[in-house]
Write a structure and sequence with these properties.
CATH superfamily: Uracil-DNA glycosylase-like domain
Number of strands: 6
Distance between the termini: 28 Å
Largest sheet: 6 strands, mixed
Number of domains: 1
Number of helices: 8
Radius of gyration: 16 Å
CATH class: Alpha Beta
Shape: globular
Length: 227
Amino acid sequence: MSLTNVHHSIVSCTTCARLRDYCTEVARQKRAAFRNDTYWGKPVPGFGDPKAHVLVLGLAPAAHGANRTGRVFTGDGGGGSGDFLMRAMHRNGFASIPTSQSVDDGLTLHGAYIAAAVRCAPPGNKPTPEEIAACRPHLEAELQHLPNVKVIVALGKIAFDVWWRVLAGKGIVVRPRPAFGHGLVHRVAGSPTVIASYHPSRQNTNTGKLTSKMMDAVFRKAANLSL
């Protein structure tokens, strides 16, 4: 399979009935601000440079963000997680522009690829363990077509945990399981280096738990470690 075929497989996935029902209903009802938009309403594949040295792994599409636009970390409004993330990536040379508002906004990624642990928007941004496990093969399939990845930037604890399960599926079992903490770097022989980061959710950025300087520092590390 090519990466394009993997993306088609992701978009057509119907494995998790609860998630598919929720995404379809959100796309039908819409948010008032987007009432004239045609919502994507399907699972969301990854996005970026197939030659990427850095893989950014998030949690899941936002109900009125990627579930609306069809691109990860895109369209969740000014000050949302997509713009916060893209500003840091832009300042560190990974993104062509510092915003992420729509699929036709001209954004391209350089040396980076963005994916999510779960490909459908979950109610309350809380996927179940079973849904997280069911989605992992999509990430594994994408990784097969991203041969140059040297660094994983794991945004949040769920994405961080999913990565170690991906490694375990390859027979690389790390014991004890590395601790999650913002900015921590974990090196495992024979696999990409992992940088843990708080997720750029509004809850984290609006409260100052995650600042622009903290996010910049993560991507400076990613740039240096991916050389």
